[in-house]
Amino acid sequence: MLLRRFVFAAALLALLISAAWIWGAHQVRAGIDAWAAERRTAGWTVDWSDEAIGGFPFSLIIRLQNPILGRPDHWGWSAEAITLRVSVLDRRHIHATAPGRHGLTLGPWSGAGKADTLDGDLVIDRVGRVSTVQISGQGLTLAPIGLQALAVSFGPGTTFALSLAGLELPEMSRPVLDRRISMLELDGHVTGPWPADTFEQWRAGGGTVEIEHLGLEWPPLMIDGEGTAALDSASQPLAAFSARVRGLSPMMDRLVAAGVVDKAAATAAKVLVAVLSKPDAQGRGTVNAPFTLQDGALWMGPARLFAVPPLPTQWVQPPR
Predict the structure, then answer these.
(1) Three-state DSSP class for residue 257
(2) Residues 6 or more apart whose Cβ sits within 8 Å of residue 12
(3) Which of 17, 41, 65, 178 has fewest C-beta within 10 Å?
(4) DSSP letters along 194-211, please?
(5) Is 58 left (phi over 0), alpha (psi -120 to 50) or beta?
């Protein structure tokens, strides 16, 4: 009798688990279809060539082949495949993986690349809004740019963090800095009316990006600082930073070699750097300097370092 009860209970449990998984798979599949239909109604392109659902009994794993996601303002993404994993017990946490080939369109620009690994995690709150996004990847290329490692996170609220390592830049005709940015770290939060319908609405409402930490290793320079960024009336970036800088003396030598400044001016600048330099916590010579990005150029104090190309209007209008 006891054995029969045990077998009956096990069979009933298996039936309940199977029913819960089938119901969960149906709910997730229906949610994807509803989201895709809503986007298509708004003019988006949402498509994939094939799909498969698995993960029984404790997970829902959905694999979409050749997904395409495009907005009517010419922002788009495509991939070789994407796999979504959701726990049956916690469907507000979605894990995604998408290694392989990728395509990206940003306004008038488009390119193709690949990722050795690319992972993402989304946390959805109780009212259905995305509260946290985390993206990480390794071995990323988007010709002519390569990236060894990337980590990005948004939320909760309007906080964000960015970390990248081994960024390979295109060849430059007169290189002053290395082609490879060893490290970039960025942490901060967004103020103002965010999210907004347009960047212009956000800017007009006093929107700013508060950078609480900026770390940059771009040989020969090493920079650590904080500041504020925004958009000007022409929807172009505007920024002011307070930074601790190392490597200015070898930077002067490179500017001379590139023909940007003459040797006498570089020598005078190196003397000034030596006078202003103070040891940091590790005993390395460091200069405190203000940096600004305005009027289409990057400035260090009153000195104009180099021109910054303007952002195309198509890139800066939609924030979402």
Answers:
(1) helix
(2) none
(3) 41
(4) -S-SSHHHHHHTT-EEEE
(5) alpha
Tokens 């939060």 found at: 189
Structural tokens at position 108: 């008038």
3-state secondary structure at position 295: coil
- Measure the CA–CA gap between 52 and 101, rounded to whole angstroms: 19
Residue with tokens 């750097």: 273
Q: What are phi and psi of 271, to 5 degrees?
A: -65, -45
Task: Provide, for the chain, the percentages of residues in helix, strand and coil under a 3-state DSSP scheme, each rounded to the nearest 5.
Answer: 25, 50, 30
CA dist 112 and 141 (Å) reads 8
List pLDDT tens digits, range 56-80.
888 889 999 999 999 887 789 999 9
- Whole-number Å distance between alpha carbons of 314 and 203: 16
CA distance linking residue 117 with residue 111, whole number of Å: 18
Token readout for 37 is 């239909």
Structure tokens that stand for 16 in this block? 């309940």
Backbone angles phi, psi at 10, to 5 degrees: -65, -40
DSSP 8-state secondary structure symbol assigned to residue 271: H
Compute the distance between CA of residue 290 and CA of residue 240 in angstroms, rounded to an integer.
7
Closest by CA position to 239, among listed 254, 228, 250: 228
Provide the 10 A C-beta neighbour count for residue 316. 19
| Tokens 């490879």, residue located | 180
Strand, helix or coil for residue 132: strand
9-60 pLDDT, tens digit each:
667 777 877 777 788 777 778 888 888 999 999 899 999 999 888 888 888 8
- Does the model's pTM come out above 0.90? no
Locate 152 and state its tokens: 């990005």
Give per-residue burial for 189-219: e unless 16+ CB within 10 Å, then b: ebbbeeebeebbebbeeebbbbbeebebbbe
Residue type, 258: A
* Neighbouring C-alpha atoms within 13 Å toward the C-beta of 136: 5
Residue reference for tokens 């925004």 = 230
